[in-house]
Amino acid sequence: MKWYGKGRATLIKLVICLLGGIFVVNGQNSLPFYSLAAPLEKDSYRLTQLNEAFLETQEPKIIENFCKDVRGTLLLGESLREPSKKDEGKLNAYLQQLRSLSSRQEVIFQLYRKSLLSAIESKDKQKFEHLASIELEPLHQPRVRSEAIAFYQKNFSDHPIKTLDSLCKEQVLEAKSIQFAIEQEQAYEENLKILKRSEVQGIKRTAKIGSRNSVIVVGERNAKGEMVFEAENLNPYLVTLSLDFEKINNIKANHSLPLYVELPGRTKKEILTLTPTVSSLEMTYQSSYGWVKGSAFAQHDDTYLYSLPFAAGTTVRVGQGYNGGLSHKGLSAYAIDFTLPVGTSIYAAREGEVVGVDVSSNLGGNSPAYRPYMNYVNIRHGDGTLGNYYHLKFGGTAVKIGDTVKKGQLIAYSGNTGYTTAPHLHFSVSMVDPVSMRRPKNLPIKIQTLQGIVSNPHEGEYYTVQ
User: Fold this and answer.
1) 182: pLDDT confidence band, cut at 50, 70 and 90?
2) Which pLDDT tens digit goes with each residue over 150-171?
3) Where are the domains of the chain?
4) How many CB atoms lie within 10 A of CB 17?
5) What is the pTM of this model?
6) DSSP 383
7) For residues 440 and 291, what is the distance between their CA atoms, to the nearest angstrom?
8) What is the distance between the alpha carbons of residues 233 and 212, in angstroms, rounded to a whole number?
9) Phi, psi for 190 (deg, rounded to 5)
10) What is the DSSP string of 429-463?
């Protein structure tokens, strides 16, 4: 067994190992299938502190047996740190055991959640304090957390519980982060005015890549009395445009309404024609449009294995993973923040065409006011999704729009621009949300690392580029 750290940290790890029989593994030297093994390893020690008498279960020694099997499985994992071909059977058995343990862990969590809510309902303060003092995943579930906090604040005003104090802070932080996510999504809800042709040149003179008016829709009546709509995308990347109509009267359209259409970069085309149902009567309507970068019709290849966007052999730390507590919420849930020094080389996690580059900003800070100053590179993949690399360094690009890049090719350098609290790379794969058709939606992906395939990265985990 290899130990890391000094002093108190090492002593804590030693005590945990002796008490719970759990292998504490440093993230940079982790077991195979670490994204499955780590939660089991962490929670099994916490579960040893849980008094089974407080769980509403008919199965005797459910926790004791679970923790015993976790120790056995982690021992098997220890023997497979550098598996060879002859260990393929043992590796598959190890993975199967991890999956089985994850299912059993969820059963225990359900019992824990049920027992905690039962303690709240029956106002059993002793049972509540014992259960709530052991920080397990169900405590962080919104309903359980809100009820636990309410009961705690009402009944323990002079008797603090550390885990509940942390939950109170978490709830406040999450409320702020959700508001931030809502603000981000609402930015895509702003409707733009349909222009007349005479207004277009004035708009074009001020339009910048990515600005609201970088996609223009013009509506003009032709000689036949029809209303013809033409859309122009001034951006270098594909966008999905939605054209909405309200209070329609005496109108027949040549496409279903509302209209959703993809516009490739730097293209202009007619998208809709309206004709009067009764030629002698006037057509009346109200219209507006919105757009968002990317495709709503992409079909992500869920079998694709992405690489970490860094140089081979590099070990990186996850600062915020999927469903992170700070800003990875809602449609932005499936993003990864990697904590990095400014100037770290960034490589393409997947091959594709560079469709967006902006590294003109040298501004960043912990305020929404800095959001427009985020540097980025966007790469369009073969399945229509976008790879997004955000918060890049000023001038920090090695590619330009239109370049075709290979997986593992140098594309940029990390920075600290835009709305950010510290230097990092925000990486995501996205498409347009097919429900709203107005917002980007991040997608869960699989990443090949030296530690195995990672499909659910968590804050604090370390991964090494294969």
Assistant:
1) low
2) 999 999 988 899 999 988 887 7
3) 7-183, 197-293, 305-464
4) 15
5) 0.58
6) T
7) 10
8) 11
9) -65, 125
10) EEEE-TTTSSSEEE---EEEETTEEESS--TT-EE
**Rounded Cα distance, 320 and 295, in Å:** 26
| Res 58 pLDDT > 60 | yes
Q: How far apart are CA 416 and CA 375, in angstroms?
A: 9
Amino acid 444 reads P
3-state secondary structure of 362: coil
H-helix or E-strand spanning residue 273? strand 267-276
Query: In this structure, which amino acid lies at residue 361?
Result: S
**Per the structure block, which two tokens stand in for 194?**
């349909």
Superfamily of domain 305-464: Glucose Permease (Domain IIA) (2.70.70.10)
The CATH topology of domain 197-293 is: Immunoglobulin-like (2.60.40)
141-147 — which CB contacts under 8 Å span 24+ positions?
141/113, 144/113, 144/116, 144/117, 145/170, 145/171, 146/171, 147/117, 147/120
- At 62-84, the pLDDT tens digits run 999 999 999 999 998 888 877 67
Sheet holding 215-221, edge to edge: 215-221, 227-233, 267-276, 251-253
With 0-12 / 13-18 / 19 or more C-beta atoms within 10 angstroms meaning exposed / middle / buried, residue 39 is middle
| Residue 200: both structure tokens together | 């277009």
Give the three-state DSSP class for 333. Answer: coil
Tokens of 460: 């604090």
> Tokens representing 453?
């395939």
Residue found under tokens 């970088």: 214
What is d(CA 205, CA 234) in angstroms, rounded to the nearest whole number?
11
Q: What are the b/e assignments for 172-201, b being 16+ CB within 10 Å?
A: eebeebeebbeebbeebeeebebbeeeebe
Query: Cα Rg for the chain, rounded, in angstroms?
Result: 27
